[in-house]
DNA sequence: GAGGTGCGCTGAACCGGTCAAGTACGTATG
DNA sequence: CATACGTACTTGACCGGTTCAGCGCACCTC
């Protein structure tokens, strides 16, 4: 009667011990597959545990083994933008799939700023809420890295690698990917190529920009980079500005899905035909790139696999088995309808060309 | 030396007690703002706690008060689709914002099926991982409800209400919203209106369909409903079929953002001008509806607020303070560029009309 | 001045696991 | 037959909080 009126009674190892006529310790050994009990007793205990529907009380286990059996992910981007970045949901899906098999939980927190993010790490560490965290959107001289190292909270950086890195990273060659994209549009005859980048402070943005500038220089192209904050508004604004220039680019490479789709919308609204007047390349190819018209040529990557790799690596780091970096499969360009050959003539382009038709 | 070489030493209430020269009990009272200590002592203890950077060990607290200080959300939709439904990320953002203020964690799990979802509830309950859960995508005779009631795990249904509901729900009038949308396109002169719905088994789908059919009947319109699984492919397939009919609808109302954007892409690809040949209405208006061209007329709702309401209600239910349903603000139609007047003539429409122009 | 009251604190049990140390017992060994 | 040893357990401390009973003491009351 001490139990609440409704609800199943939660069964503990003491219940199992009583039922099996052994001690708590024996039950613990049996359930954890450790030596110390006979095969007979073990099977009997396992049978009773199954019958009673026992699950280990995570709090109790956490208290004695100092393990939360949970990993954390903090995202410091505006909610509205996050919702539109299919990247994170797919990434989370990958992380989940690897975690749920070991019944480790994923705890997620959205914050406004990097300072808040650090505060969450402090709290999670102090509360023993998580055994480790994945860190996204790395910056140069990132204060989060210092804090995580100071705390001693296991962490894996998603995206990198960083010079003099104090934390292990899961990374892929961002520069090589952008080079592939530029070569592709260059091969289509485009010479004025713009890149609408993400947040300048992010390491992966810098790496992409570096790759972009070096390959455009190498190919003797007119390469231009503008940074955004990943928001749709900033993407729209930058695209509008680019296309309003006296000599607009004939190809634009965007740093995300949302930016690319936004850019496509702005171009169409301004009367540019895609890909006839302007070619568009997206990044982190998701369904959204494929369902718009025309479907976007995009840099495709198996983000789910990326999430799996990242979390597996974090689990290794938590176990103390490695502190190395891991390189993952890099993205590849998937050509679709939003890219086409550059106009060979130097004739009118953009809204004027369309006005000429209608 | 018992501590790991790197990493901060985690401080416990015993440390604070020793420093303050009082017992653990006194520290506990002081830190929890409960009577039992003088104001002087309380302040001294709080000062020491702040100085040492103390955070409560969640496992220890959970063990004694039987509170996990965590809520759960299980999503049983394919990851690829989920990633594209801005709804969930926005919803989660809302949930988070309400939780983080009380430093309650949100644990998320993606599963494949409703059976897996039930298994997760069993495990979470047995492990005392969560204090309660939010249940989305309710079905008629939903087995999850029975199981949650059986377990006695506090839960709030997101979407509803249900007849004979055994669990409290947070809901809004889905039927009224679809009626508003139909009246709007009807006022524009459309008489053949299709609805591309979500999963038929979901209660909110049924409610919308009911509202749709009743209002089209009332207005004497030709109303057609086709169900999908929310996937882009199914949305594309249905749209293609609708628009290939001898007498295609002149307006389509979609049940989600992704479906609507996909439908827009298919229509454009088939040569239908939007909104001249076909009007399109989306649902759960997110940025993605706004950045495509033309921007979508859509049913707008403050999803972040919806998440906040849902989780606040769950916390009330966990506290045992209420088991009532809560009605939330319903969606409203936001007209944009994807809807326009129906052609008054019975002349050719669709691809032919466009062919006639070019 | 005896008894009552309430404040401020202590001590210890308790939550449900884990795990090191100890014990009982059967069997092998010298 | 005593000793050693391995197996199969038991016992009890421990993790870090919460909470309740109890205790000393100051103050009030009649």
Walkthrough of the structure:
- 2 copies of one chain form a homodimer.
- By secondary structure, chain A is α/β, with parallel strands linked by helices.
- Chain A is 47% helix and 15% strand.
- Chain A has 15 helices and 12 strands.
- In chain A, the strands form 2 sheets. A 6-stranded parallel sheet of chain A has the order 2-1-3-4-5-11, with helices on both faces. A 6-stranded mixed sheet of chain A has the order 7-6-8-9-10-12, sandwiched between helices.
- In chain A, strand 6, helix 10 (203-219) and strand 7 (222-227) form a beta-alpha-beta unit.
- In chain A, helix 2 (24-31) packs across helix 3 (39-52) and helix 11 (232-244) crosses helix 12.
- The longest helix of chain A has 17 residues, at 203-219.
- Chain A is elongated.
- Chain A starts with 12 loop residues before the first helix and ends with a helix.
- At the A-B interface, helix 4, helix 5, helix 6, strand 2 and helix 7 of A face helix 4, helix 5, helix 6, strand 2 and helix 7 of B.
- Strand 2 of chain A pairs antiparallel with strand 2 of chain B.
- The first copy, chain A, binds a DNA duplex (30 and 30 nucleotides) through helix 2 and helix 4.
């Amino acid at each position: 009667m001490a139990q609440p009126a409704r609800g199943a009674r939660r069964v503990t190892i003491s219940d199992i011990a009583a039922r099996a006529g052994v001690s708590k310790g024996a039950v613990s050994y049996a359930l954890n597959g450790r030596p110390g009990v006979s095969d007979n007793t073990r099977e009997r205990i396992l049978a009773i545990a199954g019958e009673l529907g026992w699950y280990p009380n995570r709090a109790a286990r956490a208290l004695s083994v100092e393990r939360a059996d949970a990993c954390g992910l903090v995202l410091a981007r505006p909610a509205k933008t996050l919702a539109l970045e299919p990247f994170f949901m797919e990434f989370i899906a990958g992380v989940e799939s690897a975690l749920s098999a070991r019944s480790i939980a994923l705890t997620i927190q959205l914050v406004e700023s990097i300072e808040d993010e650090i505060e969450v790490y402090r709290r999670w560490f102090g509360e023993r809420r998580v055994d480790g965290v994945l860190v996204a959107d790395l910056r140069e001289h990132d204060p989060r890295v210092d804090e995580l190292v100071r705390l001693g909270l296991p962490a894996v950086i998603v995206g990198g690698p960083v010079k003099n890195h104090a934390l292990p990273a899961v990374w892929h060659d961002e520069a090589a990917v952008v080079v592939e994209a530029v070569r592709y549009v260059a091969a289509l005859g485009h010479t004025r190529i713009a890149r609408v980048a993400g947040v300048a402070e992010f390491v992966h943005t810098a790496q992409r920009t570096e790759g972009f500038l070096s390959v455009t220089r190498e190919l003797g192209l007119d390469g231009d980079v503008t940074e955004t904050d990943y928001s749709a508004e900033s993407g729209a604004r930058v695209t509008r500005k680019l296309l309003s220039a006296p000599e607009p680019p004939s190809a634009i490479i965007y740093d995300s899905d949302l930016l690319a789709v936004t850019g496509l919308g702005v171009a169409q609204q301004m009367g540019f035909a895609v890909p006839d007047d302007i070619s568009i390349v997206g990044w982190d190819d998701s369904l959204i790139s494929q369902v718009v018209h025309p479907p976007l040529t995009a840099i495709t990557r198996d983000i789910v696999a990326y999430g799996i790799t990242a979390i597996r690596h974090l689990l290794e780091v938590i176990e103390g088995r490695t502190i190395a970096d891991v390189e993952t499969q890099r993205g590849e360009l998937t050509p679709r309808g939003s890219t086409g050959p550059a106009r060979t003539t130097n004739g009118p382009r953009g809204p004027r060309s369309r006005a000429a038709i209608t």
